[in-house]
Amino acid sequence: MWDFIVERRSQLLINGFNHVYLVFLAVVFATIIAVAIAILVTRLPKLEPVANAVSAIGLTIPSFALIGLLIPVSKIGDGTAIIAVTFYAVLPILRNAVVGLQGVSPTLLESAKGMGMSEFTSLYKVRIPMAWPVILAGIRVSTQMSMGIAAIAAYVLGPGLGTFIFTGLTGYGGANAFNNVFVATVAIIVLALILDLLLIILGRLTISKGIRVA
Amino acid sequence: MSETTATSSGSVTGAEIRLENVTKQYAGQKVAAVGDLTLTIPAGEIAMFVGPSGCGKTTSLKMINRLIEPTSGTIMIGGEDSRKRSADELRRTIGYVIQGGSLFPHMTVAKNIALVPKLLGWDDDRIKKRTDELLDLVSLDPSRYRDRYPRELSGGQQQRVGVARGLAADPPVVLMDEPFGAVDPITRQRLQDELLAIQRELRKTIVCVTHDIDEAIKMGDRILILQEGAQVAQYDTPEVVLGSPANEFVEDFVGSGSALKQLSLARVDEVGTFPQTTAKIGESSAEVIQRAQAAGHRSVVVLDERNRPVGWPWLRQLKGEKIVQSEHAPDAIDRRATLNDALDVMLVNGHGGAVVTDAGGAYFGVVDFTSVTDQMRAMQEKAHEVSNG
Amino acid sequence: MADVATAPNAQADARERTGRKRGPKLDAEQLIELFGIPLIVVVGFVAFAIWRNTATLDSVETNALPWNSIWIQLREHVVLTAVGAMITVVIAVPLGIALTRPGLKRAAPVVVGVANAGQAAPAIGLIVLLAIWFGFGFWTAIVALVLYAVLPVLRNTIVGLQAVDPTLVEAGRGIGMSNLMVLRRIELPLALPVIMSGVRTALVLLVGTAALATFINGGGLGGLLNTGITLFRFPVIVAAAVLIALLALLIEWLGQVLELVFRPKGI
């Protein structure tokens, strides 16, 4: 197996990078979209159950099915992969952002208002910092699942380590089938754990000490 | 307390509990949690375990029903070694009441109470009869509360059901662990009174852990004051504990103002109650007013069909043609309530007195402020004489 | 899929928070899901049936979408999900109970930690790896499905049992119930809502992952989708994707109904 890794190291590195890059882009887009929707929900609280139901129902749809649905729209390739992964990545972040932003105690918001903060100032000075740990937890969940979905997206020629898995599948019985699948799977797990670790570090750096949970 | 025994109406159904050299030593701890505790709790009495937190009072209690197994020593219940039976069987014959009631939230009130009788294999008819009987005993209308879930009850009601569950299989011994710790002071006082009224009938052996010395003085026939490691500081009747504390620790623990604490020793029916004009709901207001004025009363106590006080209006408040249910039932006190409790209630109701009830919450009479203060003065003089003489 | 694993769980936690506050009544979100999902499924399926019977399809497309093979794959998909769910519950619940008993309590964080890390494994990688190991077919697919679905049920069983108020357990012991009785009559009923929300998560996971079973000849509606992609026929792809999504929604709805049915009264 070591020979296999050495032999294909450049290919592995490129695909690994692409895999992570795809997930990174999708999660960044998803965070922006989800937080924007969640902020909208704080202005229109009646939408809260709707937003939560949408994220619950959305997560139910199998990623393979969603990729299928997207093929006719965005054709085969990177675009489909990134849309599909972003779609899923939005949902957990949305759920957490709504819970987090709504969960900020009204008395805090009242006192922010009392100090003369505008709605917008209190949003980015009080609401978002208070909700950030919850939002970040959603981002971690999103990142983990995006790594797996990106692997399936490889089936429709998305970039990433998933291609090795499908190569192994097509070459079932061949000499390198196992190596292909095993190395890619382990690489995805390791990369997912590294990303998670980075997000934890990001949390340590960005979450106010006053509200950090031990 | 000797008076309690004298005025008790029921016959003793409790069993004697004897702890002989009982020790609990946890692995890895230098000091024993309970070290060599020897103690006899006579049948039919209430023993209150008090002491600072960590003194081993709860450990001592839980060793009686073997929720905690003693490291050494013997516990005899009704003359029988508690280890003779399996722990589960033993516990089915010992009532257990915990703070807040600890009702199982997924079972109805009736199911909660029926648990132990079911474990003992009672038939359904007997269980149902017993459940209703117990709900009556703890002043909850069975038809209203039987099928409710704990969530639908107030804290005081939950605690009442907890007591009913503890008494369900008519155990000779009932253990209580801070039973009234989770309710507000007024409710606590009422629950204490109710328990005392129940105990007058049942005469169980009750062992009760509390951190509240006032509760211990009020409820206990005997008080066990424990120091760290469950060392007995004093074990005696409340009168003796208050009157001649065994050492400095007890003195500190009982606290200053023990003359005032004596208020917890005197009971309302010792001071004397007198009758007040009563009225039933639906009676003609004019007639009631006439009756009250003839007796020289400015207010009447309104009773429901089971003779329980449900209102205490002034005569000028009786505006309608007929007597109606008042908005608030008066805070009644049991006739075995302490003067302390009586004062508490009097101070808030504006009548300068309190309605007194008997077993089952039935109207008994009214006690007024003057008789209570007279009694206090007499007690203070007596205490003064003792300290001077 | 790793995707839905932790996510609906986070959401179950959030839901629990609101649920407790609002008592036994359903909140707006639950109502939307409870009544919205069957509506979507019925409308979606009727629309599919009408489209299938009226649309003009070329011969390749018609051959790919015969009703009887749709039914067969649908049945396979349901069987994969149901068998996977049963085995999952049979493994995860007793294991969860064991890991909350005094003797094994300390192993619980380790087991959950390992299972958590395992969730980072991509579903497709796991399925193919197992196939290389055990060979293609239904039972290999089941093994992969169960491996995936065990975690939420296991974790929720442990969390649910740990969340039972210890004074209630002691109260049960104190009035003379045996350990087994306390487990059966107090701990399990009280933990049931949490366990069921884990089962629901597992169901969603199973129905989604079952779509990948076709890659190792495990059957299921993924086959239809795969055919569509191989033939590059959009109508077939969309039809298959819609069917899978509708089935997944239906199973999620079923999970929600189960959750409500199993919620003990009084909590």
Automatic annotation (TrEMBL), chain A:
BP GO terms, sorted: glycine betaine transport; transmembrane transport
Source superkingdom: Bacteria
Signal peptide: none
Compartment(s): Cell membrane; Membrane
Residues covered by the ABC transmembrane type-1 domain: 16-199
Spans traversing the lipid bilayer: 20-41, 53-73, 80-104, 124-142, 149-169, 181-202
Membrane topology annotation: Multi-pass membrane protein
Any single GO CC term annotated in Swiss-Prot or TrEMBL for this entry: plasma membrane
Pfam families the UniProt entry points to: BPD_transp_1
UniProt keywords, alphabetically: Membrane, Transmembrane, Transmembrane helix, Transport
SUPFAM superfamilies given in the database record: MetI-like
CDD domains: TM_PBP2
Family stated for the protein in its record: Belongs to the binding-protein-dependent transport system permease family.
Protein name per Swiss-Prot or TrEMBL: ABC transporter permease
UniProtKB/TrEMBL annotation, chain B:
Keywords: ATP-binding, Nucleotide-binding, Transport
Keyword Thylakoid among record annotations: no
Keyword flag Transport: yes
Pfam families referenced in this protein's UniProt entry, alphabetically: ABC_tran (PF00005)
Range of residues in the leader sequence: none
Name recorded for this polypeptide: ABC-type quaternary amine transporter
Enzyme class at the top of the EC tree: translocase
GO molecular function, one term: ABC-type quaternary ammonium compound transporting activity
Similarity-based family: Belongs to the ABC transporter superfamily.
Enzyme Commission number, as recorded: 7.6.2.9
Boundaries of every ABC transporter domain copy: 17-253
Classification via PROSITE patterns: ABC_TRANSPORTER_1, ABC_TRANSPORTER_2
InterPro entries for the chain: AAA+_ATPase (IPR003593), ABC_transporter-like_ATP-bd (IPR003439), ABC_transporter-like_CS (IPR017871), CBS_dom_sf (IPR046342), P-loop_NTPase (IPR027417)
Recorded superkingdom: Bacteria
Automatic annotation (TrEMBL), chain C:
Cited SUPFAM superfamilies: MetI-like
Pfam family, one: BPD_transp_1
Residues annotated as transmembrane: 31-51, 78-98, 110-130, 136-154, 190-216, 236-255
A GO cellular component entry from the record: plasma membrane
Transmembrane helix in keyword set: yes
Gene3D superfamilies, per the entry: MetI-like
Signal peptide positions on this chain: none
Biological process (GO), any one: transmembrane transport
Keyword line: Membrane, Transmembrane, Transmembrane helix, Transport
Membrane topology, as annotated: Multi-pass membrane protein
InterPro entries xref list: ABC_transp_perm/SBD (IPR051204), MetI-like (IPR000515), MetI-like_sf (IPR035906)
Stretches the record annotates as Disordered: 1-22
Domain ABC transmembrane type-1, first and last residues per copy: 74-255
Subcellular location: Cell membrane; Membrane
Keyword Repressor found: no
Alphabetized PROSITE patterns for the sequence: ABC_TM1
Family: Belongs to the binding-protein-dependent transport system permease family.
Full protein name: Permease
Species in which this protein is naturally found: Marmoricola endophyticus
